[in-house]
Amino acid sequence: MLSERQLFILQVLIDDYIQHVEPVGSRTISKREDVHFSSATIRNELADLEDMGFLEKTHTSSGRVPSEKGYRFYVDHLLSPTILSTPDIFNIQALFNEKLAETERIFEQSAKILSELTNYTSIILGPEALETTLKHIQLIPLGGQQAVAIFVTSTGHVENRPVTLPSGIAPEEIETLVNILNEKLTGVPLAELHQKIREELHLVFRKHLNNHQQASLFIDDIFKWSNKDKIFFGGKTKMLYQPEFRDVEKVRILLDALEEKTVIEQLLSANNEGITVTIGQENQVEAVRNCSLIKASYSFHGKHIGTISLIGPTRMEYKRVIGLLDTISREFTNLFNTRY
Amino acid sequence: MLSERQLFILQVLIDDYIQHVEPVGSRTISKREDVHFSSATIRNELADLEDMGFLEKTHTSSGRVPSEKGYRFYVDHLLSPTILSTPDIFNIQALFNEKLAETERIFEQSAKILSELTNYTSIILGPEALETTLKHIQLIPLGGQQAVAIFVTSTGHVENRPVTLPSGIAPEEIETLVNILNEKLTGVPLAELHQKIREELHLVFRKHLNNHQQASLFIDDIFKWSNKDKIFFGGKTKMLYQPEFRDVEKVRILLDALEEKTVIEQLLSANNEGITVTIGQENQVEAVRNCSLIKASYSFHGKHIGTISLIGPTRMEYKRVIGLLDTISREFTNLFNTRY
DNA sequence: TGTTAGCACTCCAAAAGAGTGAGTGCTAAA
DNA sequence: TTTAGCACTCACTCTTTTGGAGTGCTAACA
């Protein structure tokens, strides 16, 4: 069990280290105004804290540096309920007051602002297909056999896909076909589209269309869209400003990893409610083991649909960052639920 | 005027430097099989080439390094007509055989492959509005006052924009309105849309619609889309593999610059036919003054509509890169002209 | 018993010094 | 005109030195 004083010293030390990125010595702590015991006393406490695994030394006679266990403790127990600073609040409000029309722009802007506010890289995962439903399908002929299929979802997202019209079907029939699609598929969650088509639509086609086999093939083609979840980055180069990434090699490994969609998915997938902090080695992905990742979930009709996150060095401004993410994710949830 | 031998030595030296990124000394050159004069002779020639400004020394007793003037000369006079290597050809063909449906995917893939083939960062500018014409407009209601306006262009690009329907216009009228839009605006180059609307449409509205003022306002809103040209990147982190960017500071400046749309536009704008090589200080943009930029233009109906480019250190594999860009840009031109 | 002053000790980091080798320019001979 | 030879330069690397920040331990003190 940690004594009051140990808690205090641990907190002060981590705060100091997060700010200055230099090992913190006993004297530095003792010189603070609110510290009323000598550096020798602090040295004793530091030694104890180190024995318990909360601190580390970079070499025998250096100051102390928080260990990952230390950060974990700090995040779990030492972080006072965070209140955003006025300029932060101001910035976020400005963002959501802009009433950006396109959903994509909102994500883009949020990612950008988030990274600019924090100087860390932000990653936002757009709405997942899970809860999103199809709202409308449209087929726009381009002349010849070419056309564009357009899908509008319940979250206001628009997806388009060029298709080749089947030669064996008359234009009127195609119209019928699209009407059927709209009738049958509106309101169906994107994830269930394929299933629905397979189970119900082929039968309906047989009833209403002459060339139902061609139609079925055509439909399969249309819906062969990659259900890619959109990833938005902000401040990919912010890493380069962090002293722990002064080594190009390290930056390279990290940035290369972030280019991989699979890595991003692995990092941000399956988020539970609220805010998750993953520190260093706790991370699944090798390349980000010297980083911390903070995720916040946003939801639509009570179900998680996407993730907002920040990635930075393990020495992160946890206090501020958590407050920021919390606020922004709430705003997102709010936005989706009121708008759609 | 340069002698045969000087030309030869200059070429050999630059080739060597591009490959090994180390100052090249007289002995290195003299040891080549096809060199039949001594290192002393070469030293004399090197001194002359340096006097002429084609070479530089990093310090008094170092080997020689090509100057920017040297590269310029190399690119302009020493580059044999480039023939692609078989694996390069193979890769490009594979890319264009894939018959990717979405135009966007083609750009994405090209950028990626280009950067992977060369280990430089590639930037592709999507088709500009200049030559592209509007092919179709569609308004998809989302329920309530919300709707999505969809624009399809002659190059197959689809743009969408959420809009709020004006309250004072009946649904049938909106249909009429869209019909008018399609009738009047199909085939109009994107760049001229605003002008066309201002000059012709408002009059037509007055004739056919009751609430023509509301309609006019609405139309202005719809077409208030940012005519953003799409920028596709490939291998943004490739810089980090180049020895000249071992310094994080340099990488940061460069990568930050590339995040700026204005910078990209400045770099890639107004490209003339064929291939342009811009070396170091020749660049307009401060941040890329230690890079070389190679641009190739692709066209539609004989007019330049976009740019494919690579950015890397001034020491670039010019020979190969130029060949690659040339081929790919031709393929692009080909693609657009046959497909649309 | 907890706290503190004092001191020897450790180890990093930056500076200073020494040796090495790749490369040059110049000169004189072929 | 070309080449061999030689003195010279300068970046690099490796070692040594020095300074300072920080520790752990001990003994004295409240």
Automatic annotation (TrEMBL), chains A, B:
**Keywords (A to Z) from UniProt:** Repressor, Stress response, Transcription, Transcription regulation
One Pfam family matching this protein: HrcA
- Judging by the UniProt lineage, the source's domain of life is Bacteria
Q: Which Gene3D superfamilies match?
A: 3.30.450.40, Heat-inducible transcription repressor hrca homolog, domain 3, Winged helix-like DNA-binding domain superfamily/Winged helix DNA-binding domain
Q: Is Transcription regulation included in the keywords of this UniProt record?
A: yes
Task: Tell me where the signal peptide lies.
Answer: none
Which residue ranges does UniProt annotate as crossing the membrane?
none
PANTHER family cross-referenced by the UniProt entry: HEAT-INDUCIBLE TRANSCRIPTION REPRESSOR HRCA
Known NCBIfam families for this protein? hrcA
The record's family statement is:
Belongs to the HrcA family.
Q: What is this protein called?
A: Heat-inducible transcription repressor HrcA
Q: What is the lineage of its organism?
A: Bacteria, Bacillati, Bacillota, Bacilli, Bacillales
GN (gene name): hrcA
